[in-house]
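Action item from last meeting closed. Structure (162 res):
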């Protein structure tokens, strides 16, 4: 049996403690976790893709079996190119589970070799979302409970300029 590799895709705009919880748990299950930062040219993110990749590299520096990449296009195509057969998705509740199940079915239709595994959010991270972090940051709230300490200065600096 070969190396067990998974893909954890997302926008990570910005990376949160919830994201890091899923990454760390996946890193305990798989030999390698590829974190795929989605670049959607039709959407303007709060942080440029390059900055999101940089922040994830800082936050994941202690996780030796985690690799960060940026990608555009279809997730099913990326998994073929990277020879990945498992996608890991975090779910916070029923709404996440419904939308992620639909995406898993579509990805499986596009790449029949692809499986999706859902990891439920840990109770302490169940309410954290990147959009919530952006909103709190815009109002100058304390973000330390919601984002990794390694990237807190980057986020604060970005919102201080806006």
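Sequence:
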């Amino acid at each position: 049996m070969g190396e067990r590799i998974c893909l954890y895709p997302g926008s990570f705009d910005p990376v949160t403690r919830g994201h890091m919880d899923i990454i760390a748990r996946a890193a305990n299950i798989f030999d390698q976790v590829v974190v795929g930062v989605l670049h959607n040219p039709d959407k303007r993110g709060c942080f440029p893709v390059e900055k999101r990749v940089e922040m994830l590299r800082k936050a994941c520096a202690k996780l030796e079996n985690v690799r960060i990449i940026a990608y555009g296009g279809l997730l099913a195509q990326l998994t073929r190119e990277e020879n990945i057969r498992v996608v890991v998705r975090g779910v916070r509740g029923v709404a996440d589970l419904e939308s992620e199940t639909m995406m898993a079915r579509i990805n499986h239709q596009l790449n029949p070799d692809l499986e999706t595994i859902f990891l439920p959010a840990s109770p302490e991270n169940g309410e954290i979302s990147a959009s919530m972090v952006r909103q709190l940051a815009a109002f100058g709230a304390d973000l330390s409970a919601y984002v990794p300490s390694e990237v807190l200065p980057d986020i604060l600096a970005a919102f201080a300029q806006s």
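Note appended to the action item: The first strand starts at residue 5 and ends at 10.
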